[in-house]
Amino acid sequence: MTLSVSLTHRLGQFDLDVSFEAPAGLTVLFGQSGSGKTTVINAVAGLLKAQAGRIALDDWVLEDSAQRLWLPPHRRKLGYIFQESRLFPHFTVRQNLRYASWFARRDGPGESLSRVVEMLGIGHLLDRRPALLSGGEKQRVAIGRALLAAPRLILADEPLAALDEARKAEIMPYFERLRDEVAVPILYVSHSPAEVVRLATTVVALQNGRVARVGSPAEVFGDPTIAPAGVRGIGAVLEARVVARHADGLSELAAGAARLFLAGVDLAPGKPLRVRIAAHDVMLSLQRPEGVSALNILSGHVEAVRLGDGPAAIISVQTSAGRLLSHVTQRSVAALGLKPGVACHAIIKTLAIASRGGNGTATTQFQAMT
């Protein structure tokens, strides 16, 4: 099932003009504050009526201004997960979930209560009221409630933003299971690169009310022309897998034809994962460094040089592991003679990994092995 969105809307001084398709899986609307993410998801939900546009799930049209068609929110068959859980405080967890099941009976069969309870690990919470739940537990119940309403589409508006890092790590595996095990597309709003890298199958990068790029996390974060998260957020995403766990505590990863070494990767050999390498954590050298302790050094060549308005530049480097980005000064660009085609070596200082399986560990930052 594919969600097709085409919207134009003016709100004060802000102009929204977007068009994209979200295929099956988990599609993230990604961008900085004010880029239009929440406006888009509220329009899809029917909480905002765009001035013009069309929204459809395959051949089921939610709105079409050309045909003067607009379905109100309660007829769109959506599950909405907000930043706050918005559970009924006077209901138990079981009653909150059964309330959602009432909508499923009206609209057709949905997920069974027992399967959702098992998937989210909330069986021991069923008789509690929301006041006795942690933030992470409340969000798990909110996910279950959205799923039990038999939705044709699940919307999630920055559902982890109100949680601390420990609770985010607790919740992300459940969104992975939702993505991998439920045949319902998910439209997910986030400005966190770590969430996007771990959860997204498709990324729609928004800038100033426009679609800057649509693609996989690797395609979007590896594009130096759009800077989807600002200078500090620019970075490459590599698809990798664990090939060995060595006796000295290091894990060896295969990324393309290259090898990377990290400590603390609690995944068995053969497991896939994504490696995110921020541009400011990549140094460049014209010669392969000798007599240094860094283990993660990749050979490649410069693909493109993007000069910023200030003293900085973003260098795109093609390596045997895939495309990397490096944030350097324009003075360094001139001193090293960096231009397309120049051979160089990328020295990686820090990496972040995100498992891709439903039961993987949280996105974790690692210092490069030295």
UniProtKB/TrEMBL annotation:
The keyword Nucleotide-binding applies. PANTHER family: ABC TRANSPORTER I FAMILY MEMBER 10. The lineage of its organism: Bacteria, Pseudomonadati, Pseudomonadota, Alphaproteobacteria, Rhodobacterales. One of its GO terms (cellular component) is membrane. Keywords: ATP-binding, Cell inner membrane, Cell membrane, Membrane, Molybdenum, Nucleotide-binding, Translocase, Transport. It comes from the Bacteria. Residues 2-233 form the ABC transporter domain. It comes from Pontibaca salina. Residues 291-357 form the Mop domain. GO terms for molecular function: ABC-type transporter activity; ATP binding; ATP hydrolysis activity; molybdate ion transmembrane transporter activity. InterPro entries: AAA+_ATPase, ABC_transporter-like_ATP-bd, ABC_transporter-like_CS, Mo/tungstate-bd_C_term_dom, ModC_ABC_ATP-bd, Molybdenum_import_ModC, Mop_domain, P-loop_NTPase. Gene3D superfamilies: 2.40.50.100, P-loop containing nucleotide triphosphate hydrolases (3.40.50.300). This is Molybdenum ABC transporter ATP-binding protein. SMART domains: AAA. Pfam families: ABC_tran, TOBE.
